[in-house]
Amino acid sequence: MLDPATVVSISELNRRARQSLEREFPLLWVAGEISNLTRAASGHVYFSLKDEAAQARCVMFRSRAQSIPWRMENGQQVEARALVSLYELRGDFQLNIEALRRSGQGRLFEAFAKLKARLEAEGLFATEHKRELPRYPHRIGIISSPQAAAVHDVLAALTRRAPHMTAILYPTLVQGDSAAEDIARAIAMACQRNECELLLIVRGGGSIEDLWAFNEEVVARAIVASPLPIISGVGHETDTTITDYVADLRAATPTAAAEIATQGWHEGVGRIADLATALARAMQYRVARQQQGLDHLSLRLIHPATRLARARDRLALLGSQLDASVTHGLRRHRDRMNRAALDLARAVPRTEQRSGRVGILAQRLSAAIRGQQQRRMNSLEKSAAALAHLNPEATLARGFSIVRDATGRLVTNAANLQSGQTVSLYLAHGGAEASIITSSADHQPIAT
Asked: Are residues 259 and 169 part of one domain?
């Protein structure tokens, strides 16, 4: 309980309100009509459930929405398994939908409830009648359809967790009018052959009609009569059948049934697997909540088409203003040019009187240019002669050579040479490799 005098932030208040709602209300079934249905890019589905007097906002995260075998539409009457919660970022009351089914299945639910009540009154669900599961079974029987995906999930789990165990399949129908009798016969056959220590009854998820064979009394009594312990792994986590109540243990999924059967063998790494699963779920929940926030923020974004329309209107307005400005500017410059032309016509000089003076100046300019060119030519010839005198190739042509060591550096001091060292000689025409016989700073080096 908070002290009434304590000041809390809105985020803290919303967090406490959400925790209080989720703690106070368990998972429950809520009936209503779908309205305001929206599918976000993240895969989450947002809608409202309403009746004649009220409505509530709902969110169904992508992982849950993908399991619905039919397409949700506005106006549908449904029953939703929901967690009462609060969306903290906006402070909105909402229902987190875990499962969804169509309304109108009341007859089957009523039959299910009646049979469940009668079998429970007979004591078929009593804990004291439950058989103890073997801790380390070596042979496990699987009662399911050979084509069922649940069988492959179970075998994959057994191979991963306890590859040394033997699995025996007792094939049976898992859906249809004769499926219940077939399942009961498969259980009786497995008990008669007595070649397993534990039986798994498995089937994938589906609607209540798809799973109805596992709600038949004949199957329930066959399970109770079995001397072999039985684990029920029928449907998804939210599916519940009579088979789950009469079996010695109920697993959330077929894969979970295989994991429970191999728990003794896999207990060491099982703890690590559980922690990894919990972390994955927490991350998935966190990502889903963040994506939900992103979905709400995306509603505040302006659609690109709207932005383009606004930009198009703005561009048209600027274009009109530009046209008007250009037209006005051209008119103004045309007037200025006309005035300048008149001024120029009035200010044209009379060149007849100055033509003689221009001729004399032109002759002087030509003479000055020729003199300047001759002086520049003489200076250029002198520079060329000096450059030719300093040209290294001219020096090489007089019998000199350039000496470089193995690294390519110039050798200017005989003291830097050693006997046996190889040097490169660069001559006026070509070059040569030489080996130093002896060297001295006092006399010329000798190379071969």
From this structure: yes
Question: Which residues on neighbouring strands pair with residue 374, listed in sequence order?
Answer: none
| Pairwise CA distance, residues 159 & 165, whole Å | 8
226 versus 392: the higher-pLDDT residue is 226
Average pLDDT over residues 196-210: 87
If you average pLDDT over residues 411-439, what whole number do you get?
84
Contacts of 408 (CB under 8 A, 6+ apart): none
User: Among residues 104, 120, 144, which one ends one of the domains?
Assistant: 104
Q: Which residues lie closer than 8 Å to 1 by C-beta, 6 or more apart?
A: none
DSSP 256-279: HHHHHHTHHHHHHHHHHHHHHHHH
- With beta carbons less than 8 A apart as the criterion, state whether 139 and 261 touch: no
Which one, of 201, 211, 261, 210, lies nearest residue 233 by Cα? 201
Kind of pairing, strands 45-50 and 55-60?
antiparallel
The whole-model pTM stands at: 0.41
Provide, rounded to the nearest whole percent, the portion of the chain with pLDDT above 90.
34
238 and 151 inside one domain? yes
402-404 sheet: strands from edge to edge: 402-404, 422-426, 431-438, 446-447
Angle between helices 149-161 and 254-261 (to 10 degrees): 30
Note down the domain range covering 398.
394-447
Q: In what order do the strands lie in the sheet with 198-203?
A: 166-171, 139-144, 198-203, 230-234, 249-250
Domain boundary among 205, 232, 267: 267
CA distances from 381 to 84, 374, 385 (A): 103, 11, 6
Q: What is the DSSP string of 53-115?
A: S-EEEEEE-HHHHTT-SS---TT-EEEEEEEEEEETTTTEEEEEEEEEEES--HHHHHHHHHH
CATH code (residue 83): 2.40.50.140
Together in a domain, 91 and 157: no
Write down the pLDDT at residue 351: 65
CA distance 88 to 81: 21
pLDDT interval class at 185 (50, 70, 90): very high
